[in-house]
Amino acid sequence: MKVYEVLIEYTSSNLDRLFSYFYEKDDPIQLLSRVIVPFNNKLVCGVVININQVNETKEEYIKKTGFEIKNISSVIDKEPLLNEELANLSLEIANYYFAPRISVFFSMLPPSLKPKLSSQNKPKIAYESFVKVIDNNIDNLTKKQIDLLNKISTQQTIKKSECPTSILSSLIQKNKVEIFKKEKNRMFFETIEKTEKLTLNEEQKECFDKILNGTKDTYLLEGVTGSGKTEVYLQVAEEIIKKQKTVLMLVPEISLSYLMVKRFMQRFERVAILHSKLTPSQRYDEYRRIKQGQVDIVIGARSAVFAPLENIGLVILDEEHSETYKQEDQLPYYHALDVIKMRQKYHNFKIILGSATPSLETKSRALKGIYEQLYLKKRINNLPLPKVDIVDLTNKNNISSESALLSNSLIEAIKNRLTNHQQSILLVNRRGHSPYVSCRECGYVIKCPNCQVALTYHYMNNKLICHHCNYEVDMITKCPKCNSNKVFKGGFGTEKIELEIKKIFPEARVLRLDSDITRKVNLTNKIINDFSNNEADILIGTQIIAKGHDFENVTLVGIVLADIGLAIPSFRANERTFNLITQAIGRSGRAKKGEAIVQTYNKNNFVIKTACRQDYMSFYATEIKLRKLLNNPPYTFMCLLLISGKKYDEVEDASDEVKRYLQTKFNEIENVFIVGPSEMFIKKLNDLYRKKIILKYKDYNIVKPIINDLMLFFAKKRNLSLIINVNPHEDY
Ligand code: ADP
Ligand code: ZN
Ligand code: ZN
Predict the structure, then answer these.
(1) Which of 34, 66, 85, 456 gets the highest tally of CB atoms within 10 A of its CB?
(2) pLDDT at 521 exceeding the cut of 60
(3) How far is the CA of 593 from the centre of ligand 1 (A)?
């Protein structure tokens, strides 16, 4: 008698355990395959985690355990979903991040293979019918039949859809040809011509040699865009593939990495692409191709870190500082680099971390010698970085009479580009028209009923929208409180700057790119292509436009307000602002000499000053001292405990209770700090009040079991939830 222990599809943490089932049919069930089981009078999907042989009969076993044990209804997979490495990895991630193991399976697998009832109707393997010859003898055939037979014979196989139906069926009837099925790959790749590898320059060669021959397992390849990092990735990858090993290449966001993907496809034959923007069929087909060992390289965004590659010899994390490598919108809250390091223990591969502005954590590890530090200091084309002007907005004389938001020098510079048929980019890191709407009479600010933050006015659809929960209402014409019509739109976002620019330069062709546009229709590619093809003069946008793209005719970048990100109460605010400014400035002068104009109220702020000089090392030197002073990463590890619920008092009481619980447990343990409870920056989200407690510690092994106990302790609390975010990217 066999007992099957099954993990079911619900992600709630109190169902994160195994349930026993019998199976009385003959077909075998594999470990780690999906099954359909009855659970709470419903059918659900589950994964078989253990199969135990027991000596008792069914009745004896039920009597012994005292549980009613039901039968598995049906079996979905004939093979295991995951190999042993990935199965163990799922457990390691679940434990490390306090996530239900089923949620880890969800992240690891493409939609068609997710252990969910709803994945049953997701795409299956698609087949295409082909025809092949089984008898070449042309006796008794008509002229048309002979022609078709010859055609198939010379091409060996031919798609069924390419044969005239009636002639084909006569040939089949006469046993001349037969039809067979082949798996179809629904992933579409344009034909890309192969290119030869370039001769590495001295700096590149040195990096290449060190990565291949060095003894360290992780390499920080630091160099500005255009310094030749990608060429080093390509050539190291080639060496690894020559040794019959595979390569995993992660990029922050696939839509911004088109050129990178293309360059890999130009160099290598067996490449797969994995990311969430593919259709479910494509993801399924690519996934299976990888699993069947048909590819040498996988390129993808965060979740590609789970690609079922065997024998991995190299993992590249491009733009390693990018926040997109940390999943924070759903469980498990994993960071791709943590997962890479877990997989490294199994495969023993080398890791390349590439960046122009490494995260403080990575840089400090490189300086300590934990990672090997490699530099590419020169740009390949020797173009100088753009000349940067800082405009002090506190000096009223600098502000143009044509717009309260733009300076004379920025307007002059745009004018100059228009005359010279060159392009400009304006960075405004906030979407919408105005970030708040208030009443001039009584001061009332319109807020989101679910989140209690100010609603943003959107000009495009004349709505007020919450940027946290997407709640929306029509724009008001009168104050809902005092009925005055003195409605004031405060601050600015991309839409407002767009309107101002169009007013000042009515003849200019202006494009805007922010997530309002990319979400509605997939216009991103069109806008980027149009701008690349010089079909517009000015591109206005949020951080989306600061990353990745190479626009040859852009010679001006204007940052409308560099200070926006600095005010966010996160330990990473400085780092993020520095990265954004340097990246934005870097869009100027990719092929011609460029300029950047940075508008700020804080011209003496070290973040703005160092970013404008593109001086990463000075930024690092100051910022790392602040991190030390405030005991923030990389000087400590961090875990964010987020307590939320519908009633403020309950959330407050529970937070205090959690704090007391932790205090007794951590009493006398050195180097563990409990910070809070304090309000989250967004105090209420989706109708839930939120409070946080931050744990800071040096040794996760001490903290982990205590958080585990805390979760059990907290599980008894009704109406409240506790979210654990280990190594959060942000702490607000
Ligand atoms: P990064 O990844 O740091 O932005 P790339 O590898 O993309 O840099 O290089 C920038 C440009 O220089 C690309 O157009 C690339 O083809 C070219 N390039 C890189 N290395 C060489 C080389 N050794 N010789 C000639 N051109 C090179
Ligand atoms: Zn009012
Ligand atoms: Zn809201």
Answers:
(1) 34
(2) no
(3) 18
**Cβ proximity of 250 and 316 under 8 Å:** yes
Q: Quick check: 297 and 270 in contact, CB under 8 A?
A: yes
| Residue of 231, 251, 547 to test ligand 1 pocket, by largest number of atoms within 8 Å of CB | 231
H or E stretch at 219: strand 218-223
CB atoms within 5 A of ion ligand 3 belong to 448, 450-451, 466, 468-469, 471
Longest CA span, the chain: 97
Per-residue burial over 97-106, b = 16 or more CB atoms within 10 Å of its CB, e = otherwise = bbbbbbbbbb
Alpha-carbon distance of 235 to 229, in angstroms, equals: 10
Task: Specify the DSSP class assigned to residue 181.
Answer: E
Residue reference for tokens 């992240």: 107
**Interval between CA 381 and ligand 1 midpoint (Å):** 8
Looking from the CA of residue 204, the nearest atom of ligand 1 is: 23
Percentages of the chain per state (helix, strand, coil), in multiples of 5:
35, 25, 40
State which ligand 1 atom lies nearest to the alpha carbon of 227.
3
Q: Return the ligand number nearest the Cα of 471.
A: 3
**What is the atom index within ligand 1 of the atom nearest the CA of 379?**
10
Do the strands 637-645 and 720-726 form a parallel or antiparallel pair, or are they unpaired?
Answer: antiparallel
pTM above 0.85, yes or no: yes
Three-state DSSP class for residue 295: coil
Segment 26-55, tens digit of pLDDT: 888 999 999 999 999 999 999 999 999 988
d(CA 576, CA 608) in angstroms, rounded, equals 11
Tokens standing for residue 651: 């959330």
State both tokens at 313.
Answer: 């010899």
Q: Each residue of 673-698: pLDDT tens digit?
A: 999 899 998 889 989 999 999 999 99
What does the pLDDT look like over 350-377, one tens digit per residue? 999 999 999 999 999 999 999 999 999 9
Q: What is the DSSP letter of 451?
A: T
User: Angle 302-303-308 (CA atoms, 0-180°, nearest 5)?
Assistant: 130
Task: Give the closest residue to 414 by CA, choosing from 493, 527, 502, 514.
Answer: 502
Do 281 and 186 meet the contact criterion of CB atoms below 8 Å apart?
A: yes
Q: Do 694 and 676 form a contact (C-beta atoms < 8 A)?
A: yes
Query: Which pair of tokens denotes residue 714?
Result: 């907290």
Does ligand 1 lie within 6 Å of residue 229's CB atom?
Answer: yes
Kindly report the protein residue whose alpha carbon is nearest to atom 9 of ligand 1.
228
Report the relative pairing of strands 157-159 and 127-133 from DSSP bridges. antiparallel
CB 379 within 8 A of CB 224: yes
Helix (H) or strand (E) holding 235: helix 229-242
